[in-house]
């Protein structure tokens, strides 16, 4: 922003719309604003996508638990689930049953070894499911913590440029100072607009992911106990 721009701003002092403030800002401040607006759009895309995914995931868990405890045989349930891509508890169940069947097909004789392999298979699947649940949450945390400082950087640059132009114009009235400062402060405002939803959404979605993860871990422990009893029965009957 040079002295000519400041003079032009004086003539347009009555125009204080956000669009005008954006176009009157300097090049660096505009880049900051555009980056923050893009980050805000991506933040809302993640929030909407994750909210919908968590809703579907929760319904899948409820449906699987209903089928699992309905009295249906484990073999039939495994046959139905293994033919298609599964997630959540279904993925844990399929991983455990696959290891179970492979081990007995190869003549497993050690209950402890078989139980360890089943638990390891479910642990690996559980880690994969948690990675999927928590994916892109780190971006929300980054925007929530960094966006205000990025906006503040744009504000500082804008104010410095404004004061330099004001010094060159040799006019210090409020009509000269106010438009440039308003342009610079817009960057901080956009930074806060991007950061506040990101922080709130990160806390909410992280808590939801933790609750879903606890349900997966509880099922893994419970199913491991069920298979442990069946392992003892099968090996003792040989």
From TrEMBL:
Domain MotA/TolQ/ExbB proton channel: start-end pairs: 113-217
Major site of localization recorded for this protein: membrane
GO cellular component: plasma membrane
Pfam families, per database record: MotA_ExbB
Bilayer-spanning residue ranges: 27-48, 137-160, 180-202
Highest taxon of source: Bacteria
Keyword check for Transmembrane: yes
GO terms of biological process kind: bacteriocin transport; cell division; protein import
UniProt membrane topology term: Multi-pass membrane protein
Keywords: Cell cycle, Cell division, Cell inner membrane, Cell membrane, Membrane, Transmembrane, Transmembrane helix
Locations listed in the record: Cell inner membrane; Cell membrane
Subunit annotation: The Tol-Pal system is composed of five core proteins: the inner membrane proteins TolA, TolQ and TolR, the periplasmic protein TolB and the outer membrane protein Pal. They form a network linking the inner and outer membranes and the peptidoglycan layer.
Family: Belongs to the ExbB/TolQ family.
Function of the protein: Part of the Tol-Pal system, which plays a role in outer membrane invagination during cell division and is important for maintaining outer membrane integrity.
Name by which UniProt lists this protein: Tol-Pal system protein TolQ
Lineage: Bacteria, Pseudomonadati, Pseudomonadota, Alphaproteobacteria, Hyphomicrobiales
């Amino acid at each position: 922003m040079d002295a000519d721009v400041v003079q032009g701003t004086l003539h347009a002092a009555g125009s204080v719309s956000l669009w005008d403030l954006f176009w009157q800002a300097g090049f660096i401040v505009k880049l900051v604003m555009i980056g923050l607006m893009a980050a805000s759009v991506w933040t809302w895309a993640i929030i909407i996508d994750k909210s919908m995914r968590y809703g579907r995931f929760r319904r899948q868990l409820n449906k699987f638990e209903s089928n699992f405890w309905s009295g249906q045989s484990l073999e039939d349930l495994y046959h139905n689930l293994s033919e298609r891509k599964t997630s959540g508890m279904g993925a844990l169940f399929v991983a455990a049953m696959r290891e179970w069947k492979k081990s007995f097909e190869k003549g497993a004789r050690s209950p402890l070894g078989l139980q360890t392999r089943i638990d390891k298979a479910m642990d690996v699947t559980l880690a994969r499911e948690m990675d999927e649940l928590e994916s892109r949450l780190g971006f929300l945390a980054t925007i929530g913590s960094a966006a205000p400082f990025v906006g503040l950087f744009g504000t500082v640059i804008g104010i410095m440029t404004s004061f330099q132009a004001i010094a060159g114009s040799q006019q210090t009235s409020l009509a000269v100072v106010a438009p440039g400062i308003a342009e610079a402060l817009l960057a901080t405002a956009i930074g806060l607009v991007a950061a506040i939803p990101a922080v709130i959404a990160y806390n909410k979605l992280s808590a939801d992911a933790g609750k879903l993860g606890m349900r997966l871990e509880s099922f893994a422990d419970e199913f491991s106990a069920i298979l442990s009893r069946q392992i003892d029965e099968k090996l003792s009957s040989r």
